[in-house]
């Protein structure tokens, strides 16, 4: 039985590894591909990411409710894997021809398809694995570290692959999707196992979800504070990373050399991130999930502002490495805050609306806005504006949110 439990841990880890291998390859090298291979301007490249975000806005509410209804069933996850399988053929045989025919139309179609796999699909992956690991009595952060390891691997090999053949990145995603599909098919998580591990929570979590339960989420001020916080942290994290590789490469006489160096730095960053992910659950349990989110926002603010003013290559590299602290703080805090504050039966819905939906609203707006600003006032001035936006959202969100410990005390008082 112990061997089966250990095998399941590696199954979860493998699913995270191969999904985020795809995620890291695309988000690290798609900006280079759009710039060098598709020859898009920064504003049209920003439109690709905006289209990804708009599609996710449509998908997230639907995905959340479906996944909460499905519980531990894998059908929706399987649909995401099916979309992932066709990334290689889509990019090589459809995306580029569409961009050449009409850049704006191609950007919208390409962004929408990629969102099925990434911006929209990631909510399904994260929510399903979080629920399954909780059912199997694993600490989410310990399993999630495999996603960071995947990011490190992708950054290390991706630079070499991209320089040799830009399309190889997307075909590698298709191969990873095949392995992910096999791991998903092999995974077994039973309700009986969940009952043994979380017996006190079973009655609440297994009872039917009502319309009133869903409406209570929207009546909770912490939900709206959480949404605002996610725009300040998760949105701006992604918007900053969208075109930062091009900014970094601009400091090199040979752009391909800059791309390769960036891939090495990103590789180091995500391996460091994996190390911090091991410690993050313990640390967040000590300081609280709300404080963890605030701290993640402060780190992002420092990272963006530093990239504007400290423009030596080694300084930019150091500032990039700060993401290794920021990402574990954000991811672990998000999951602990959701399960600590909201009805656990609605964890997928809250995750997809409070985190992913809010994040995509921000990305829809700020991807295009920042892309335009980069073109008009330059990357450095654009980063100063971004840093101010980050701090404003983090402060407002923190003022509205209540800590999870506030709700724990109220529950204890009500029980007494």
Descriptive tags:
single chain, 416 residues, mainly alpha, Growth Hormone, Chain: A, globular
Order of helices and strands: HHHHHHHHHHHHHHHHHH
CATH architecture: Up-down Bundle
Shape: globular
At CATH level 3, the topology is Growth Hormone, Chain: A
Tally of helical segments: 18
Radius of gyration: 21 Å
CATH superfamily grouping: MFS general substrate transporter like domains
Classification by helices and strands: mainly alpha
Helix content: over 70%
Number of strand segments: 0
Uncertain ranges:
192-203
CATH class: Mainly Alpha
- Number of individual domains: 1
What number is the mean pLDDT?
83
* Biggest sheet character: none
- Residue fraction in strands: under 5%
Distance between the termini: 38 Å
Q: If you had to describe this structure to a student in words, what would you say it looks like?
A:
The chain is mainly alpha-helical. It has a single domain, classed as MFS general substrate transporter like domains (Growth Hormone, Chain: A, Up-down Bundle). Helix content is about 90%, strand content about 0%. It has 18 helices and no strands. The chain has helices spanning about 1-35, 40-70, 75-85, 85-100, 105-115, 120-135, 140-165, 170-185, 190-195, 200-205, 210-220, 220-250, 255-285, 290-310, 315-320, 325-340, 345-400, 405-415. Helix 1 (about 1-35) packs across helix 12 (about 220-250) and helix 3 crosses helix 5. The radius of gyration is 21 Å and the shape is globular. It starts with a helix and ends with a helix.
